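Field reference: sequence -> structure
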Amino acid sequence: TDANGNSVTTDTVTLSIQELQESTITIITQPQSIVVANEGDPATVSVVAEGDDLSYNWYYKNPGNSTFTDAKTYTASTTIRVTAARNGREMYCVITDANGNSVTTDTITLSIQESQETTVVSVSESESVSAESVEEKPLLPMEGIEAESASETVTDESVADDTALEMNSEEDGTSLEVDASEVEEASIIETENGDFGGDMSADVDS
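Structure field:
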């Protein structure tokens, strides 16, 4: 209406709320929690989704905080260095399609692997192993006196006159002696028998 009393009427309009179309978002792979080996190592968090003209927005919450903060990261993946202050950080992503529909991913956690404790066992210098603590080994049978590793078998023909063959056992002090009158040829006996554990030697009297 103007000052002269003239008036006009506008067109009639209708107010309504637009109905959203069905969501086109499908999450193929949810983000996963990550444990890094060392403080400061990078961790890459990502989500795989399908839909029409998707957009991404990540949110995070550090330990001690009660609310999530906009990370202002708008890609499907993001890389964060997991420092001590971020150890235990929680994150999720909101995905929105061209129709305004949105889906929120699972919430994941970033953390640093705890160091493993090492247990050191030391032995006192005063500790020693006594002879009684070692199980005694029986002597091998004296008959034949031949082992798999011996280079030669001891026989009565291998020692000459005026020669006495003595075999000593280091384990019990017993010895075996062959009379020189019962043998014919002189020879030096060598053995590599590691199982017998004793000395075998030929003594020649001049």
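Note: Residues 24 and 56 are 14 Å apart (CA to CA).
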